[in-house]
Amino acid sequence: MDDQWLQGGPWWKELNEQLGARDGARLDLQDAADNIEEISSGPFLSWRQRGRRTRSAKAAVIAVLVVLVSGARYIMSKKSQAQQTSPTPQTPQLSQLPLDDGSMHQYLYEFNRAADEMHDAWEASEIPVQQAFQEFFTPSLEDGQELFQGPLTPIFEHVEKMRECEVPPESDVEARGEFAQHLQLLRNVCRVATLRLKEMEFAVNVNKHMMEPAPAHEKFQNNEDVPATYFPRPSEVFGSGSMDNVDKKIADNLMLLMAAEDKHDAYNFVARNYFDGFLKPVGEDDAFDPARSAARYQVPYSGKPFLSGAFAEAAEHVFRDSTPIYWDPRQFHRDGAKWTNEEVLEATKRQQEGISKNFERRLSSKREQMRALLQEGVPQDDLLISALFLL
Q: Mean per-residue pLDDT for 58-66?
């Protein structure tokens, strides 16, 4: 396996495409990502070998990864500020979609391309990645729930049904508009599914390749030590007092986990942004506005309604109930902790626990909303349920 999972690649491209180049927020780090490949070509496990070049390679990769996720956080901050100062959504309302023949051809092209990319991403994913996707992004009501079909089968079925439909004539504006809306929804469902597969690939590789440090201090004596300045902004985390050198493996693990935290936030941000047009189906900021809750359109191949208002309301619950709560590394500074093997090990443990809990909280919130939707009569194989679990 190569080191592409550490590059800016798909997730960074998606983030930039969603936000655009605005106020200098776009950061082009592809050259840096290419440098990683040059420096650290070959399997990740080669980084465990001893030698100055190997240690430098891993340090370079971690440093660039930290830069990448820091840039992502900066872009997301710029986006948040723009939304607060502008009353209009960044994504055009679906009711305003152009419906001319040229636009419809473009929607079909984007839909088919997104569906093919989702299929290819699934086929290329290793079993652990598929299992992780199934656990966190496939509809379920409890842990260990047995699936009677593949995790993406319901979405693939909707895709095939849509491909069999003919575009309504221009004279039927309502049907043509609903057709365009559903193309947009399916396109974005496929894109987010692909995005989540990439996210799980990254998470699986972090878990697979993080080196387990020995818990006892005497076990560190033969390893390379690094000073506190090896860590980004060390005084914010460990204070400015005297600090010992710590085992480099431990420092690397903590840095990787902190980068993984930011990257997970970036994935969530991009996923939410893809569905922005459906999360504001009537242009209201209040997710629980009665008019918004009742918003719906007719699915072309089934004639049944897609409850876009219910989707927006359920999504708002998920966003509200599962806002990430991470352990703040600066708490170590307030507690008087120092740059020592024991303190950094404790920081790593807390960071791991925080990431796991945030995944679990978001999954629990989606399951709660799924139960509510099922009670309201929404079928379990409805595209609404699949889209909700991709958030």
A: 48
Residue type, 246: V
Q: Are residues 22 and 79 in the same domain?
A: yes
Task: Tell me, rounded to whole angstroms, the distance of Cα 18 from its chain centroid.
Answer: 13
In a domain, 127, yes or no: yes
- Residue 145 belongs to some domain of the structure: yes
Beta bridge partners of 225: 247
pLDDT value at position 47?
Answer: 27
Same domain for 228 and 270? yes
CA 258/CA 253 separation, integer angstroms: 9
Check whether residue 255 and residue 346 sit in a common domain. yes
Give the whole-angstrom CA distance, residue 138 versus residue 120.
18
Domain count, the chain: 2
Give the type of residue at 159.
V
Q: Give 205-262 pLDDT, tens digit per residue.
A: 888 767 554 444 445 555 666 665 566 655 555 555 556 677 888 888 888 888 888 8
Residue 223 in domain: yes
In a domain, 302, yes or no: no
Query: How far is CA 91 from each of CA 52, 95, 320, rounded to the nearest angstrom?
Result: 49, 12, 21
Q: Which domain holds residue 151?
A: 99-277+315-389
- Cα–Cα distance for residue pair 363/385, rounded to 1 Å: 13
Instruction: Find all residues with CB under 8 Å of 298, minimum gap 6, and list them.
Output: 175, 178, 304, 305, 306
Q: Under DSSP, is residue 225 helix (H, G, I), strand (E, B) or coil?
A: strand
Distance between CA atoms of residues 129 and 127, nearest Å: 5
246's enclosing H/E stretch is: strand 246-247
